[in-house]
Design a protein that fits this description.
It contains 25 helices and 16 strands. It has 643 residues and is of the alpha/beta class. The chain folds into three domains: 166 residues, Substrate Binding Domain Of Dnak, Chain:A, Domain 2; 150 residues, Rossmann fold, CATH 3.40.50.2030; 222 residues, Rossmann fold (3-Layer(aba) Sandwich). The strands form four sheets. Strands 6-5-4-7-8-9 form a six-stranded parallel beta sheet. Bound molecules: iron/sulfur cluster and Broken Fe4S4 cluster.
Length: 643
């Protein structure tokens, strides 16, 4: 199997082949063969009577020491993955809420409220009085209310009201409306403790409730509050590839997820004092580039170039041109300091939640963020003269892209300033120029060729006139291929989709941001429902979701909240419940009866794309829009004829 489809990664891999770096692909080889029980989800180490495992061939043990069967064990493992994913996204959201509170109290120098309109809108959703109030007071109250969404013990999370009414009623009937994020995570861990919840369907109810607390609370709040603090993104041009690193500049890579510090780094890097210092050390400037979701955050709001996605993180260091890599939380490989030790590169951890042995820890807080950002940049500048020219090998080539799409910008771009709406999108779907909409998101995984599954899937969807919405590492994969370029991306489209994208001036693949911004897809899907003509629930839309190269527990949480919101969702690579026929049947089939959405597992990305297209076609048929129809504008005579 080829390791990567990414041209600059391939070049670099070729060059470093003789050298002694151990990359994720090498480490995967060392792990082979991986444990089959683990892959199927049928091992349990939830108590010290175990670890227990279930024989998938039915010849040996079919239950653990406590009597738990394959259905219970796989369901418990699945729920624990959901809980970890929810925790990661939601702790991110909580950190932004805490920052908003500090900004409102004047305790976070350097931060400000950039989107007052969004703040007011959210305040009204929380039922707050805004009339005659100072913006700081409203921000404080919104921050406090947002924190309550995490700690709430009863009732319903607030933003669930954003969902279509029919969807809310489905959730209420099933009893899966989350009460508060923390409560759902704690209950998930309690239920999966030895000897507690031991009915797989009942365990899955909590998986749904917990996941919904991510999509419609934790992640959604992270997105909303970041937009309030850092500005709601608008379409912006950018560049992608390891080629964005500059040989003659100080290169700083920001990597991880939370934009709280990276925003300050971007601001500090533009400080004339910093630029002067860099020049004194012989650099032409300071170049910030991003990896993973932090990259998406600073691209969306500042046009900061993307160095790459998840599997580019180790390779970026082997270019020999990175002075410091600043990391915070999630998706950061522990191997980074080891690789960095072969170069002049420093890995800097910054979150009080995450340290890595061998990295330099420079903890930041909102109170000292700008000061810390400057210290980090100074450290990078100091390291520039230590760079060994002989070690520098930046693969040439940058690819253009347009990112920064949000619910707000899609509305505006489709309808213009005075008629901003989703009507043109819905009309084009009804008319058949656009077959449907797909969200293709998620990670990279060294078990499959880096970026390849994303590209095969997305190109097939475009060919079949499906508009693609992306976040996370999936978006970066497609950006590298030029699919986020409004001109080059059109080469891959069917005639209908091309026509619409040309008319509106958008790429056929819309970059909606980081992993927490999958909540923007929920908001966009809801807006499509509310616009009318495509049914009255998300499950009726000709839409589907996928994560063809997923690896993170967050992906499972995202997938489960998409399914529970009514979306057909296909995952590739491996699937963690295959050791239980009953649970797999529930997730792949029966859950659709309850939720309107369901999971599928298909490792072949082309086949997975066709599953999505078949699903979209099925929904078109159910809506009675399966035959391409052009909208006919009636003139007076035709109207008279009607009468
Ligand atoms: Fe084994 Fe049951 Fe303990 Fe799990 S909880 S390790 S199945 S005894
Ligand atoms: S960073 S969760 S590898 S998308 Fe959000 Fe990429 Fe997956 Fe991390």
């Amino acid at each position: 199997m080829e390791w990567s489809r990414d041209g600059s990664a391939k070049k670099l891999l070729q060059e470093i082949r003789e050298e002694d770096f151990q990359l994720s692909w090498d480490r995967l080889q060392e792990q082979l063969p991986q444990c089959g029980f683990g892959i199927l989800g049928i091992c349990c180490r939830n108590c010290s009577m175990g670890p227990c495992r279930i024989d998938p061939f039915g010849e040996n043990a079919q239950v653990g020491v406590c009597g738990a069967d394959a259905d219970t064990i796989t369901a418990r493992n699945f729920l624990r993955m959901v809980a970890a994913g929810v925790s990661a996204h939601s702790d991110h959201g909580r950190a932004v809420a805490e920052t908003l509170i500090k900004v409102a109290r004047g305790e976070a120098p350097g931060y400000e409220i950039k989107d007052e309109y969004k703040l007011l809108k959210l305040a009204l959703e929380f039922g707050l009085e805004v009339e005659g109030k100072k913006i700081e007071d409203i921000a404080l109250q919104v921050g406090i209310n947002a924190l309550h969404e995490f700690g709430n013990q009863e009732g319903e999370i607030t933003l669930v009201k954003r969902a279509p009414l029919k969807r809310q009623n489905i959730w209420r009937k099933l009893g899966v409306v989350p009460r508060g994020v923390d409560r759902e995570v704690v209950e998930a861990l309690h239920r999966t403790h030895m000897g507690t919840d031991q009915n797989y369907l009942h365990i899955m109810r909590q998986a749904t409730r917990c996941a919904l607390s991510d999509g419609w609370a934790g992640s959604m709040l992270a997105t909303e509050l970041q937009d309030i603090l850092f500005g709601t993104p608008t379409p912006i041009v950018g560049k992608v590839n390891l080629g964005v690193l500059k040989e003659d500049q100080v290169n700083i890579i920001v990597h991880g997820h939370e934009p709280l510090l990276s925003e300050m780094i971007v601001m500090a890097a533009r400080d004339p004092e910093m630029l002067k210092m860099a020049k004194e050390k012989g650099a032409r400037g300071i170049n910030i580039a991003g990896i993973c979701c932090t990259a998406n955050e600073v691209l969306m709001r500042h046009g900061i170039p993307l160095a790459g996605n998840f599997l580019n993180q180790e390779l970026a260091i082997t270019t020999g041109a990175v002075e410091v890599m600043v990391v915070d939380v999630q998706c950061v490989m522990q191997s980074l300091p080891t690789i960095a030790s072969c170069f002049h590169t420093r890995i800097i951890t910054t979150s009080e939640k995450a340290k890595i042995s061998g990295a330099t820890h420079m903890e930041f807080s909102e109170e000292n963020a700008l000061k810390k950002a400057k210290e980090i940049i100074k450290m990078a500048i100091e390291r520039f003269p230590l760079r060994k020219k002989s070690q520098v090998r930046i693969p040439a080539g940058e690819v253009d892209l347009v990112a920064g799409f949000t619910h707000e910008t899609i509305t505006y771009m489709l309808g213009g300033m005075f008629r901003a709406s989703y009507k043109p999108l819905n009309d084009n779907i009804i008319g058949g120029r656009i077959r449907g909409v797909a969200g293709v998101v998620g990670c990279n995984n060294p078990k499959v060729t880096h970026d390849e599954s994303h590209l095969i899937m997305v190109k097939e969807l475009l060919k079949q006139d499906v508009l693609v919405l992306q976040t996370g590492c999936a978006a970066i994969a497609c950006a590298k291929e030029g699919l986020l370029d409004p001109v080059k991306g059109l080469e891959y489209c069917g005639d209908g989709l091309r026509e619409v994208c040309e008319a509106v001036g958008i790429p056929p693949v819309l970059h909606l941001g980081a992993c927490v911004d999958n909540s923007r897809i929920l908001v966009a899907a809801t807006a499509m429902v509310k616009e009318g003509g495509l049914g009255d629930d998300i499950s009726e839309l000709p839409a589907a979701g996928a994560a063809p190269e997923w690896m993170s527990e967050k992906a499972i949480s995202i997938g489960q909240y998409f399914v529970a919101s009514g979306v057909f969702t296909v995952f590739g690579v491996t699937w963690p419940t295959l050791g239980s026929k009953n649970l797999s049947r529930y997730l792949f089939e029966e859950i659709e009866e309850e939720m309107g959405g369901k999971w599928a597992f298909e490792p072949d990305p082309l086949k997975a794309a066709h599953l999505m297209i078949e699903h979209i076609n099925k929904k078109r048929k159910a809506l009675g829009i399966d035959k391409a129809r052009e909208r006919v504008l009636f003139d007076m005579e035709m109207r008279r004829g009607l009468e």
